[in-house]
Specification:
By secondary structure, the protein is α/β, with parallel strands linked by helices. The protein has eleven helices and 30 strands.
């Protein structure tokens, strides 16, 4: 394919969300987009979003915009799904969708002024991929005329958890041959944006037939988007531009400058641009869309039994109806209940009425304000070299399982307040302690004193697993002084 014939449509996947309403499964360090919420879900939400427009004959490779803390998860999941990103653009701090999309438009537009971006969240479900591709084709054609195109979802119910787009007249000169109704792929003027309504207003929106759920999917030419954004929110463009000019390239990652990007206001693209510009149109689509934004939505898309229950894991239900149950380890038993969500994880249990599942984020805020970590991290913590899982935690001791991928290598490090005892249970470890390097095999162990520099590596072709027993006066993950690190992590990042 010559450079002239290369496609100029760039899928952009936004992967910076935290998914607090799907706690306790979704957490700050392992949010919703990296999850599989059903036993038969082949791909994670991120993988499915990136694969959705992965046709090299029609689109350029995907650009992912995500949180710097999730960069190894993004890389790992793309590789697992045999996907290659054009760029992984890293936000040093969360600044909502306005600055994130501005940075992507600037970075792509600098190399391709005619680029058309298809911007998508990383954590939505689209059941009809063929219809979605057709809608994208129609949106791209409209975007090339200077429009900013939004995808509107025909509401199935009076939903109070979504924003709405009010559609006006069909665009003159953009007839599609379809009847002049709100048919798929026909573009319409946007009259207004409406925030999440109350129940009565939502019912009115649905009955009037000219309101659509805001899907958060946008199609536009980079130059048009940036020109409009400069008119309505120049501070967003300038902060993103400075962050790109001072960005640091690290292999597949582009780290936006922390100081410059942090100077951008934290604002959504709806507030900073779409509600103010006259250049927006909406294309109503019917693609089997769900934002899976709460446990009630997970129940909606799940496989229900004869009593309306959706079960993921092991559960015994007696006289239960229309419930959602997720269990990772324990057996969940429920008797005589209706319309409940029950989510069991190794360190947290959620029970809520399905109709109140939008309010789970309130609980997450309370957990965060109580100086606990269950909102932030699972017992199983992913790292670029593998993962560790907490097994037991006492006053002056902690026990973990460490799983190191073949070729994985922890940083050279030391601890001021704890010693560590490693017992290999699978594979072979290469352990550096001070000036000595030795191989430690199954059922062998090694002891590391506090303040002693050490490193753990897996030189083999099978995963390495070992039990780590920590003993000391302070066992926090921030008690790490890091030396050499092949993953180029900052001192603030652990292990």
């Amino acid at each position: 394919m010559t450079e002239r014939s290369r496609p100029t449509v760039y899928p952009v996947v936004l992967s910076g969300g935290s998914g607090t309403r799907l706690w306790p499964l979704s957490r700050q360090m392992y949010p919703k987009q990296f999850l599989r919420l059903a036993e038969d879900q082949e791909l994670t939400f991120l993988q499915a979003s990136c694969r959705r427009l992965a046709d090299p004959a029609r689109y350029r490779p995907v650009t992912v915009v995500g949180n710097v803390d999730h960069r190894f998860l993004v890389s790992e999941q793309l590789a697992e799904a045999s996907l290659v990103a054009r760029r992984i653009l890293l936000e040093p701090v969360a600044r909502n969708t306005g600055p994130a999309i501005a940075a992507a438009a600037l970075e792509i537009g600098a190399n391709d002024p005619d680029a058309v971006l298809v911007v998508m969240p990383s954590d939505h479900v689209i059941a009809d991929e063929v219809a979605f591709a057709g809608a994208v084709d129609r949106a791209v054609a409209s975007a090339r005329t200077g429009r900013i195109v939004l995808f509107g979802i025909r509401p199935e119910r009076p939903e109070t958890g979504y924003g709405y787009i009010e559609a006006g007249m069909a665009l003159a000169g953009e007839e599609t041959g379809l009847p002049r109704t709100y048919a798929a792929y026909a573009p319409y003027d946007v009259v207004s944006f409406r925030e999440k309504p109350d129940a009565e207003t939502a019912r009115r929106f649905v009955s009037e037939g000219r309101f659509f759920w805001n899907s958060g999917i946008f199609v536009f030419r980079a130059s048009d988007f940036l020109a409009e954004l400069m008119l309505h929110a120049p501070e967003v463009v300038e902060a993103a531009r400075r962050a790109l000019e001072a960005a640091r390239q690290e292999e597949k990652y582009l780290h936006l400058d922390p100081v410059a990007f942090a100077s951008a206001p934290s604002i959504s693209v709806d507030y900073c641009l779409l509600e103010h510009t006259l250049g927006t149109v909406v294309i109503p689509v019917d693609v089997g869309w769900s934002d899976v934004g709460a446990w009630s939505a997970v129940w909606d898309i799940g496989r229900r039994d004869d009593h309306g229950n959706v079960v993921n894991g092991t559960a015994f239900l007696e006289d239960a109806e229309n419930c959602y149950v997720h269990s990772e380890t324990a057996i969940v038993a429920a008797v005589g209940v209706r319309d409940l969500v029950i989510v069991d994880t190794p360190d947290a249990i959620l029970v809520t009425d399905r109709s109140r599942s939008q309010d789970v984020s309130r609980i997450v805020k309370r957990i965060a304000s109580s100086n606990r970590r269950e909102h932030e991290q699972h017992l199983k913590a992913h790292r670029p070299w593998g993962f560790f899982q907490q097994i037991s935690n006492g006053g002056r001791f902690q026990v973990k399982l460490l799983h190191v991928n073949p070729g994985g290598r922890l940083s050279m490090q030391m601890h001021h307040h704890r010693s560590e005892h490693w017992v290999v249970v699978k594979g072979t470890a290469r352990v550096t302690c001070g000036d000595s390097v030795r191989l430690v095999r199954e059922n062998e162990s090694v002891y590391i004193n506090a303040t002693e520099w050490h490193r753990l590596e897996n030189p083999g072709k099978v995963p390495l697993e070992l039990i780590e027993v920590q003993i000391g006066s302070y066992l926090g993950e921030d008690d790490i002084i890091r030396g050499d690190d092949v993953y180029n992590r900052t001192p603030e990042e652990t292990k």
